[in-house]
Amino acid sequence: MDVLVPYDTRDPKTRLGPFLTAAERRSLARAMLTDVLDSLSRVGVEPTVLATEAVEAGVPVRVDDRPLTPAVNAAIAGRDGPVAVVMADLGLATPAALERLLTAEGGVVLAPGLGGGTNALLARHPEFRVDYHGVSYRDHRAAARAVGAAVTTVDSFRLAVDVDDPADLAEVLVHGDGETATHLRTLGVEVTTDGGRVAVTRSAEKSGETG
Amino acid sequence: MDVLVPYDTRDPKTRLGPFLTAAERRSLARAMLTDVLDSLSRVGVEPTVLATEAVEAGVPVRVDDRPLTPAVNAAIAGRDGPVAVVMADLGLATPAALERLLTAEGGVVLAPGLGGGTNALLARHPEFRVDYHGVSYRDHRAAARAVGAAVTTVDSFRLAVDVDDPADLAEVLVHGDGETATHLRTLGVEVTTDGGRVAVTRSAEKSGETG
Q1: What's the total number of domains in chain A?
Q2: Which domain, by its residues, includes B64?
Q3: Which residues of chain B make contact with A170, given a CB cutoff of 8 A?
Q4: CB-closest option in B114, B134, B191 to A135
Q5: B119, B131, B142, B127: which is closest to B77 by C-alpha?
Q6: What is the mean pLDDT of chain A?
Q7: Contact B167/A115, CB-based, under 8 Å?
Q8: Residue A203 has what pLDDT?
Q9: How large is the average pLDDT for residues A71-80?
Q10: What is the pLDDT of residue A193?
């Protein structure tokens, strides 16, 4: 199956800006890409990285410097078979969760992301196109219906967590065991709790802003 | 199977305080309980509500006004068979997600909640006890190991979302189709987006603070 992993190298993860330097955010994005590619490899998939510039990823890379939506739609246009799109920032994605996506029935299979997003999808209908702006989960449901494709969903916590905000780092630290979690620990990012929902803190001696 | 649904009637959902009045938070908590009980009913389970005071719930109610952890541990102590504990604030829980929990293998089955919590669990080991304080997902893994129980997890977005913060309301509005979502719409709570992760807003004419 064709699987695309969009990967934007340009100033990634800006919402982590108060917490990580630009260089640290780039290395975090790279660690997450590594984890996603590794999990896909473990379910027997060789994906194509859809990158904004040439990168070395150990798998084929398609370069398209347009924004996410037109770049993905250009990549999926004209394909015969099913195509999946898996975001590169799924720091908790496991082979089991990805296998559930790739083997789910349905003309369009959606894995919702926190906050109304679509973190992964599988399209078997040749006319389906993506639109990642706004509440993309709703828009993708509508887009599937518009082309007559049956929509199903994959109910996965591990596919629902994309890493955008500091709170998402806590999820990776609690539940992750890949490069991403290791990388965060190397940066001194730790889980903290005041008795309610956990958050993250950073040990001062490892802060990239001061070190 | 014995299934407990802890339900605290005392000033529920305080983190929604800036957004909903105390009466609205109570009615929201009640709508979520209704949805959870309805989903359990659809998988053939008659749960027991473990409430802090006598409530009418259409199913058996056990009253215990202690905090969550001792109340649950008192309720599960001395049982022969498996027992499940499902939080009452899972506004997105579906029969399918709950069935995955209740049929999963393992001595202790954990459904992680966002922020390190444990939103639902199934214990087949008679000595397992809960501790919901702090990063309970980690603590429950350790507690299961301590009694020699094999730990498995249920990877479910719908069981991972418990409704504590305004952002969680957006999840219910985007993905929910039960009483909880209906109730939020009645209160004028709506999804909004600025292009990034969605949030919620409230139409001024329906605000309980001013109406």
Answers
A1: 1
A2: 2-164
A3: 115-116
A4: B191
A5: B127
A6: 93
A7: yes
A8: 73
A9: 94
A10: 83
Cα gap A70→A47, rounded to integer Å: 19
Q: Is the confidence at residue B38, as pLDDT, over 50?
A: yes
Any domain includes B206: no
pLDDT digits (tens, 9 = 90+) for B60-73: 999 999 999 999 99
User: C-alpha B69: how far from its chain's center?
Assistant: 14
The candidate with the shortest Cα–Cα distance to A39, out of A8, A70, A84, is A84
Is the CB of A114 less than 8 angstroms away from the CB of B197? Answer: yes
Write the residue in A155, A170, A191 that is nearest to B157 by C-beta.
A155
The answer to whether residue B205 is domain-embedded is: no
DSSP states of A24-74 as a string? HHHHHHHHHHHHHHHHHHHTT---EEEESS----SS-EEE--S-HHHHHHH
Q: Residue B159 is part of a domain; what is its CATH number?
A: 3.90.550.10
Arithmetic mean of pLDDT, A114-132? 97
Annotate B170-202 with DSSP letters as a single string.
Answer: HHHHHH--SHHHHHHHHTTEEEE-SSSS-EEEE
